Amino acid sequence: MYRWIVIVVSSVASLPAQSADAPVAPPTAQSGRPVQPPPLPPAPVEYFRQLLKMNSEERQKELGNRPKTREFLGSKLKEFEALAPEERENRLRTMELQWYLRPLMRTSPTNRTLKVIPERDRPLVEARLKLWDQLSTDEKRDMLETELAVRVLSRPEEGLITQSGFSMI
Questions:
Q1: Secondary structure of 25-41 in the HEC alphabet?
Q2: Interior CA angle at 61 toward 56 and 66, to 5°?
Q3: pLDDT tens for residues 11-64?
Q4: Rounded to an integer, what distance in angstroms lies between the CA atom of residue 58 and that of residue 61?
Q5: Where are the domains of the chain?
Q6: Is 60 helix (H, G, I), strand (E, B) or coil?
Q7: What is the tens place of the pLDDT at every residue in 82-121?
Q8: Element of type H or E holding 91
């Protein structure tokens, strides 16, 4: 379920990201600097958070002429609005952590960079990657194939919401 929200929200949120007028220069190694991978875009959950803050008129305007997206997000927005604030925040944080963890779980520990992850999320991501790195190759493969396992690894612990964000025990 969360995966579909992330997919739809990320596709909608990324639409106005690039201008057709702006030329994009390909990365070159001629400058003598190593070619860096592009930065990770903001988690699509942030766009969903913005939609949650909007009233129905603002949402209608924001989603425009995308009936399938509007219908899907509308149902998810209603679902999230019905949740208690703590549960809503836990679900949103879970989706954010999944956004950051998935590509890092598929990356060799020596090639990972956590600089693109917001400061408040780094301790959570680092703790989960430490657990991840202790698994065997077969266990990792099995977990990546099982959506539920990725969700469990990404889920913030219940009841650990604080004023400054989440904390680990």
A1: CCCCCCCCCCCCCCCCC
A2: 105
A3: 444 444 444 444 445 445 565 665 555 666 677 888 899 999 998 889 888 888
A4: 5
A5: 1-13+41-82, 86-169
A6: helix
A7: 999 999 999 998 888 888 888 888 888 888 888 878 888 8
A8: helix 85-105
